[in-house]
Specification:
The complex is a heterodimer of chains A (322) and B (125). Chain A is built from eight helices and twelve strands. By secondary structure, chain A is α+β, with helices and mostly antiparallel strands. Among the domains of chain A are: 81 residues; 87 residues, Immunoglobulin-like. In chain A, strand 11 and strand 12 form a beta hairpin. In chain A, helix 5 crosses helix 8 and helix 6 packs across helix 8. The radius of gyration of chain A is 26 Å and the shape is elongated. In chain A, 29% of the residues are buried. Chain B has five helices and no strands. The longest helix of chain B is centred in the C-terminal third of the chain and has 33 residues. Chain B is mainly α and 125 residues long. Helix content of chain B is 75%, strand content 0%. The chains are: A alpha+beta (322), B mainly alpha (125). The complex binds copper (II) ion. Copper (II) ion binds next to loops of chain A. Chain A: Subunits I and II form the functional core of the enzyme complex. Electrons originating in cytochrome c are transferred via heme a and Cu(A) to the binuclear center formed by heme a3 and Cu(B). Chain A: Belongs to the cytochrome c oxidase subunit 2 family. Chain A: It is a multi-pass membrane protein. Chain A: It is found in: Membrane.
């Protein structure tokens, strides 16, 4: 009974995964993921046809009386069905799928986005051609209809950058830059995930991807290029007193830092802690005091000495950085 | 062609000639990787002399084909009817020749499968 119900739940999980539209290659919003889905369906249909054919042949072979074909004929069947036809089918599949595997061409006029995988967050730097880079973290926005070139690297260990609805995955290797050129076609809010085991909180290392119409994207990027406009003075003081700025850069307030996520426009992000929690004041306050409760092995120290009010003041200050 | 095939009989298949097709495949495989790595490193794009690569592939295919044809000839050396599993010289020859022929078939296909991505992808990323 138990075996049966777990088999059913495994099967339904597979089918329910089909309803996922924000993190699935089967629901693509980019050109490359659409290609991957197309290839997958082709292979699936081909595999089902071949498996069906083999099953029919097997049925036939089991039922046929012994001696109904002679040795010569048997060997010929082995040669054709076991050698020649599979080779030709594989050759055809290879020739058909290779053009899809060709990397998308990039032009120097394309927006470049450098993304580094860190335990357990993402450093993001938008580099529009001819303008200084714009630092961000844990959320990536891209324009639709234009090619975008990601330059992927790792800061500590190997991570893997994967936005299933946009393109295939690509490793992020310390000391090496891998290039991934993509094109989003459908605006919307999607999700990416680290796809290479990188430590305790590997599963908690995700990010939101927001594909925007080009004009809206350009306006957003221009806004991001501005320094922060800090409000809440109490929060700003706490931020400085507790040394948060040693790890977190806020443009216009303190120097950039590579140790923790850039917080210049933290308040405009949709999620907290690399795609893990909704961006609410309570979540931010709780995360600041005990980040390890959300993410085991996190590289940010906890601040249990902060009172509830102080944590809330910090959260309010950071969320005010739009 | 006829005469050439007759001459092939004199090149006796041995355990050494058996490894010719897979060795050619291995060398071609290594050569493909090196070619791409060196081209990408030195000039930043694929490739230095793509035609030379194609010619190298054709040479590898010819070597494999030739050893396959020779082996095919010798696997059909006339004599007693099958099965050919005695410890005699002629059975040994037929066995080695047949194995060489199968290996040649496999290596031929493998070389094509290796060369296709190199020629069709043509990208260093
Ligand atoms: Cu990871």
């Amino acid at each position: 009974m138990r075996g049966k119900s777990s088999a059913i739940s495994i099967l339904t999980a597979g089918f329910l995964a089909g309803c996922n539209t924000h993190q699935s290659t089967l629901a693509p919003f980019g050109a490359d993921a659409a290609d991957i889905r197309h290839l997958f369906i082709m292979m699936l249909v081909g595999a089902v046809l071949i498996a069906g054919g083999v099953a029919l042949l097997m049925r036939h072979a089991v039922r046929a009386p012994e001696g109904s074909i002679d040795h010569r004929k048997g060997m010929r069947i082995v040669l054709w069905l076991g050698g020649i036809i599979p080779t030709v089918v594989l050759l055809g599949l290879l020739a058909y799928s290779l053009p899809y595997m060709k990397p998308r061409p990039a032009s120097p006029a394309d927006l470049t986005i450098a993304v580094d995988g860190e335990q357990f967050w993402w450093r993001v730097a938008y580099a529009p051609p001819g303008r200084p880079p714009i630092l961000s973290a844990n959320e990536i926005r891209i324009p639709t209809g234009r090619t975008v070139a990601f330059r992927l690297s790792g800061g500590d260990v190997v991570h893997s950058f994967w936005i299933p609805g946009l393109a295939g995955k690509m490793d992020m290797i310390p000391g090496r830059i891998n290039s991934l050129v993509v094109r989003a076609d459908k605006p919307g809010r999607y999700r990416g995930q680290c796809a290479e085991f990188c430590g305790l909180s590997h599963a908690l290392m995700a990010f939101d991807v927001i594909a925007m119409p080009p004009a809206a994207f350009d306006a957003w990027l221009a806004e991001q290029a501005r320094p922060a406009r800090p409000g809440d003075a109490a929060g700003a003081r706490l931020f400085a007193e507790n040394g948060c700025g040693g790890c977190h850069g806020i443009a216009g307030v303190n120097a950039p830092s590579r140790i923790g996520p850039d917080l210049t426009h933290f308040g405009s992000r949709r999620t907290l802690a690399a795609g893990i929690l909704p961006m609410t004041e309570a979540n931010v306050a709780a995360f600041i005091r005990h980040p390890e409760k959300t993410k085991p092995g996190v590289r940010m120290p906890s601040f249990p000495q902060l009172s509830d009010d102080e944590a809330i003041a910090l959260a309010r200050y950071l969320q005010g950085l739009k | 062609m006829k005469r050439w095939l007759k001459g092939a009989h004199r090149l006796r298949v041995t355990l050494w000639t058996l490894i010719v097709p897979p060795t050619t495949w291995a060398v071609h495989f290594l050569f493909s990787y090196l070619w791409v790595a060196i081209s990408c490193e030195r000039i930043g794009r694929w490739a230095l002399f793509p035609t030379a690569f194609a010619i190298g592939t054709v040479v590898a295919l010819i070597v494999i084909l030739a050893s396959g044809v020779i082996a095919w000839q010798q696997s059909r050396t006339p004599g007693d009817p099958p099965p050919h599993n005695e410890g005699t010289d002629i059975d040994r020859l037929r066995f080695l020749a047949y194995s060489t022929m199968l290996l040649a078939g496999l290596s031929f296909v493998a070389v094509i499968f290796t060369a296709m991505p190199v020629l069709m992808l043509g990208d260093c990323r």
